[in-house]
């Protein structure tokens, strides 16, 4: 067998092997695709899903000085700093009492009838103003000077672009009574029972009340960091 023939045979064999290898590899994803798929799968399994915001539930009274202080110095400033990291739920009732009468409901409030009227306006505002930032700014504006509930309600409505008419009609009618009664049911269902106003829950927990009332932002950030197991840049 000649040397030339042997060389040709080796070349043919080499070509055949290369062709077979190419046919095999063309059915597999490229390295970059494989790497991207692997990394994507790894990322999905290791990185946790987005942690939900902290739910801040505030049980308060419209004429309560401590409630006013909490709204203006803690609640609104905290919301303005981390609006996407907290969800605010407002419950205007406090230490009021509800009596069922033939015409509907009769309310008695810790700071007198004027507070019942103001609480009712707050309840209607919470129902009618559904945009979170506008709702909180509006209720904070009202609670800053709630000694004339209708006057301040209308003035704050103009300031924050809120439709006062629907709130006023709600507060003057049975809808306002029903809303306030519902807030009373929510307040009375709280355990332990409310003994200080405001009472503030973080994710349904009443723990650390003095700390929450003193520095809401810090307490919210602490819970966010515990949930995420890492620091939260917005809290820095």
Describe the structure.
The chain is mainly alpha-helical and 236 residues long. It has two domains: 40 residues; 175 residues, 3-Layer(aba) Sandwich (Glutaredoxin). The chain has ten helices and five strands, in the order H-H-E-H-E-E-E-H-H-H-H-H-E-H-H. A three-stranded mixed beta sheet has the order 2-1-5. The protein has a two-stranded antiparallel sheet with strand order 3-4. Helix 5 runs antiparallel to helix 6. About 9% of the residues have low confidence.
| CATH homologous group name of the largest domain | Glutaredoxin
Query: Would you identify the CATH architecture of the largest domain?
Result: 3-Layer(aba) Sandwich
Helix content: 55-70%
Unreliable spans are 28-49
Strand order of the largest sheet: 2-1-5
Assign the CATH class of the largest domain. Alpha Beta
Provide the number of structural domains.
2
Radius of gyration, CA atoms, in whole angstroms: 32 Å
Number of helices: 10
Largest sheet: 3 strands, mixed
User: Using DSSP, what is the number of strands?
Assistant: 5
Blueprint (SSEs and pairs):
Blueprint: H1 3-25, H2 31-46, E1 54-60, H3 65-81, E2 86-92, E3 97-101, E4 104-108, H4 113-128, H5 132-143, H6 149-160, H7 164-172, H8 174-188, E5 199-202, H9 209-214, H10 216-228
Parallel strand pairs: 1-2
Antiparallel strand pairs: 1-5, 3-4
Helix pairs in contact: 3-5, 4-7, 4-8, 5-6, 7-8
Would you summarize the structure shown here?
The protein is mainly alpha-helical and 236 residues long.
């Amino acid at each position: 067998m000649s040397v030339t023939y042997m060389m040709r045979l080796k070349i043919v064999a080499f070509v055949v092997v290369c062709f077979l290898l190419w046919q095999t590899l063309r059915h597999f994803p490229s390295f970059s695709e494989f790497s991207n798929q692997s990394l994507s799968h790894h990322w999905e399994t290791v990185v946790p899903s987005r942690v939900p915001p902290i739910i801040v539930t505030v049980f308060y009274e419209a004429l309560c000085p401590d409630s006013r202080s909490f709204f203006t110095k803690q609640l609104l400033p905290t919301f303005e700093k981390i609006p996407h990291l907290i969800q605010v739920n407002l419950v205007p009732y406090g230490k009021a009492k509800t009596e069922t009468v033939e015409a509907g409901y009769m309310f008695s409030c810790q700071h007198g009838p004027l507070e019942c009227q103001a609480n009712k306006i707050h309840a209607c505002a919470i129902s009618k103003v559904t945009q979170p930032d506008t709702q909180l700014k509006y209720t904070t504006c009202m609670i800053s000077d709630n000694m004339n509930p209708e006057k301040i309600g209308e003035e704050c409505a103009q300031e924050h672009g809120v439709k006062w008419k629907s709130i006023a009609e709600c507060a003057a009618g049975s809808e306002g009574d029903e809303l306030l009664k519902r807030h009373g049911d929510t307040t009375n269902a709280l355990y332990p029972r409310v003994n200080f106003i405001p009472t503030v829950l973080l994710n349904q927990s009443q723990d650390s009340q003095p700390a929450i009332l003193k520095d809401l932002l810090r307490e919210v950030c602490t819970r966010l960091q515990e949930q995420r197991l890492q620091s939260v840049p917005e809290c820095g």
